[in-house]
Amino acid sequence: MIFNDYPWLISPYQQLAQAILHNRAHHALLINYIQGSGEDELVQMLANRLLCQASSQLEPCLKCHSCQLFLSHHHPDYYVLTNEQGKQSIGIDQVRSITSKVYEKSQQGGNKVIWVKHAALMTEAAANALLKTLEEPPQNTYFILSDDHNSHLLPTIYSRCFSYFLPVPELDDSVKWLKKQHCQHYSDNELASALLLSENAPLTALALLDQEKWQQRKAFCENLSAVIAQNDFWQLAKTIDNEAFLERIIWFCALLSDALKAKQKVGRFIVNRDQVPLVRLLATKSHQEISALYQIWLQARNQLLTITGLNKELIIYNVLAQSELICSGDNK
Ligand SMILES: [Zn+2]
């Protein structure tokens, strides 16, 4: 099987490829996913199968001329539409440049496939331009739209598509998979923590378990233990640049959320299974303090993500100062 490297994709692929095999594939497929769950690999395999001109199986033959062209990234009837480097949106000109071609005959005499990657990045004008094509689909033309399950796609586009949610594997299966990816030296608790911090997406967890990255998280957690014990949040300012801070916020909020679970005696649901002592330490704070911390840190994240031009250091210093104020109650 082609998906030997990603065993959890086999069943979703087979499900979707059945429709292709029986010539009843929807002309617009929307794949919703959790980032890092093999979404791009799945789309590419489906595109390959749609373009293959020799297979009578679920899988593409990988041998015909069309497959060869696809595998060498030179298939003339395969288009990938996504945001250009450095841009945060897919513009109407990009959509038009492709929709103008799809009414022409395919160059290889088979299907045409258009992959709209990060479809929610289409501007409203771009989405409306694509909508027209989706409403009057050209023959033998298949659109695959993909985006994160949290993204917001225009409802009109959504209603034109056959929507599919790519499931993530069970936690235990992912732990086993990670162990085969040079992660044997991590404990089961560490592997589970990396997965739970990644919404169970195996490839995102694998990236988080990169030695340097995981070490950074460990150092942050150690640092945080001292910070909480001494109520000295300024320690966090020393080593952190803006970009890294965004990630620390996510880590801290996950720990705070765990602390609340620990307080409510539902500790079995905690995410940071490898940081139980730190979670317990945080759980010594009051419910109010933990919630207040959670709120201001999440707010700081939103500010860092959405507000441009504001001094980012100021936002960081502000959240650290506020954190100390919140926690100063029980240290006096
Ligand atoms: Zn083929």
Provide tags for this entry.
alpha/beta; Rossmann fold; Zinc Finger, Delta Prime, domain 3; 15 helices; elongated; binds zinc ion
Summarize the entry for a quick read.
Helices cover 52% and strands 8% of the residues. It is built from 15 helices and five strands.
Account of the protein in words:
- This protein folds into 2 domains: 2-165, P-loop containing nucleotide triphosphate hydrolases (Rossmann fold); 210-331, Zinc Finger, Delta Prime, domain 3 (Up-down Bundle), CATH 1.20.272.10.
- It has 332 residues and is α/β, with parallel strands linked by helices.
- The protein has helices spanning 10-21, 39-51, 65-71, 92-99, 124-135, 155-160, 171-179, 188-196, 202-208, 211-230, 235-238, 242-263, 276-282, 287-306, 312-327, and strands at 28-33, 78-81, 112-117, 141-148, 162-165.
- The model has no long low-confidence stretch (mean pLDDT 92).
- The chain has 15 helices and 5 strands.
- The structure holds zinc ion.
- Zinc ion binds next to helix 3.
